[in-house]
């Protein structure tokens, strides 16, 4: 029997690598000739590192959906619809949570399968909220009211480092302008100014480190200390809602919205793709199909700290019990999530645009100036 070694690149959080390592072991039981080795990269590298830097080394690549246009234009990834049986893909499409499955389609090709699903959601310390007699805000107007009811011993935090500020900015634009607020490589100017002005108001009420933090830093802080009791927009992590993961349990729910428009928050999550340079594409495809199917996602994937991309795993009562109803409590947000553009150049614009926005907020640059620079940057790609 000829041995096959597949190399994969995951991202640096137990949610990112534990379920992939666990499913690789069970896949090996079905295919004893296959070893799958996983390296990890940082969360920022996951969002920003060009695929071109990975495809020479790795067979299996965890990827964000905005890279699909780049992958298509430069033939970086293999179309999975040519490697995975149609009946399997139709089943996975039916079992998608929200737009996760569809988000990895580009130009008629499916370049990855969503094995992990996420969107911006709200995180809170239920014990502190109940003790203080507070109600979780359902709308952004209620959120502004919520700040004023919190005693000085507690705080609200948003992850607003450049990457996460970008996701929040696009979320608020979509909530107020609908899904088509970006046209012809232009973000609607008046809308962008309005959202930036609102973000500046929120900043006055937030923990001062919010402008530097990512979701993991806030969730770690929420779980270990009693200072931060609520975060309205961050990418959820089921790990923190599982007993024993951290000192205190963090619960999750739907983010505040604009009740006038049927959009929740920005879609995140992770797709599993195959490098165009892989010498073992059939086996890599077999592994992706195995990881993505409902049985694996409901069971070993979720049990090993994963945040599955399969709807059946989200509906599974055992998984909801395990994760303090994380899945049931955030499903509405997932189903109404906003999907970012995927055209070639978007990922580079996203990285540079995030830095531009962040610099603008840190230096309190006028919102109209920020928007002018942002759209000029967009037009350059």
TrEMBL record:
Its keywords, alphabetically, are: Cell membrane, Lipoprotein, Membrane, Palmitate, Signal, Sugar transport, Transport
Q: Give the UniProt subcellular location, in the record's own words.
A: Periplasm
Q: Does the keyword rRNA-binding apply?
A: no
Q: Its principal location?
A: periplasm
A Pfam family of this chain: SBP_bac_1
**Which InterPro entries does its entry note?**
Bact_solute-bd_prot1 (IPR050490), SBP (IPR006059)
Q: Which SUPFAM superfamilies match?
A: Periplasmic binding protein-like II
Q: Which domain of life is it from?
A: Bacteria
**What's this protein's family per the entry?**
Belongs to the bacterial solute-binding protein 1 family.
* Protein's name according to its UniProt entry: Multiple sugar transport system substrate-binding protein
Q: Which organism is it from?
A: Arenibacter algicola
């Amino acid at each position: 029997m000829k041995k096959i070694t597949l190399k994969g690149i995951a991202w640096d959080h137990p949610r990112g690598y534990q379920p992939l390592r666990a499913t690789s072991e069970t896949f090996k039981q079905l295919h004893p000739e296959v070893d799958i080795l996983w390296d990890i990269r940082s969360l920022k590298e996951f969002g920003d590192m060009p695929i071109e830097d990975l495809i020479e080394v790795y067979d299996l690549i965890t990827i964000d959906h905005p890279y699909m246009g780049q992958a298509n234009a430069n033939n970086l990834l293999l179309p999975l619809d040519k490697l995975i049986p149609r009946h399997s893909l139709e089943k996975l499409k039916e079992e998608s949570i929200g737009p996760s499955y569809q988000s990895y389609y580009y130009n008629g090709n499916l370049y990855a399968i969503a094995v992990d699903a996420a969107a911006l959601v709200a995180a809170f310390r239920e014990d502190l909220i109940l003790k203080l007699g507070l109600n979780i805000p359902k709308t952004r107007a209620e959120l502004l009211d919520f700040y004023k009811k919190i005693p000085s011993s507690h705080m609200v935090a948003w992850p607003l480092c450049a990457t996460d500020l970008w996701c929040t900015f696009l979320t608020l634009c979509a909530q107020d302008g609908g899904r088509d607020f970006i046209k012809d490589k232009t973000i609607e100017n008046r809308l962008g100014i309005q959202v930036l002005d609102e973000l500046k108001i929120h900043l006055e009420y937030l923990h001062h480190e919010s402008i530097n933090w990512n979701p993991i830093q806030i969730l770690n802080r929420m779980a270990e200390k009693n200072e931060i009791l609520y975060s309205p927009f961050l990418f959820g992590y089921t790990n923190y809602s599982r007993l024993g993961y951290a000192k205190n349990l963090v619960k999750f729910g739907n983010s505040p919205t604009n009740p006038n428009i049927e959009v929740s928050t920005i879609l995140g999550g992770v797709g599993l793709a195959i490098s165009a340079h892989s010498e073992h594409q059939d086996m890599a495809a077999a592994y992706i199909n195995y990881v993505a199917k409902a049985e694996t996602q409901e069971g070993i994937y979720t049990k090993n700290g994963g945040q599955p991309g399969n709807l059946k795993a989200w509906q599974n009562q055992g998984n909801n019990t395990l994760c303090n109803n994380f899945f049931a409590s955030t499903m509405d947000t997932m189903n109404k999530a906003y999907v970012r553009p995927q055209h070639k150049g978007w990922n580079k614009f996203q990285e540079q645009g995030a830095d531009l926005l962040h610099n603008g907020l840190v230096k309190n640059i006028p919102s109209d100036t920020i928007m002018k620079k942002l759209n000029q940057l967009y037009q350059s790609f």
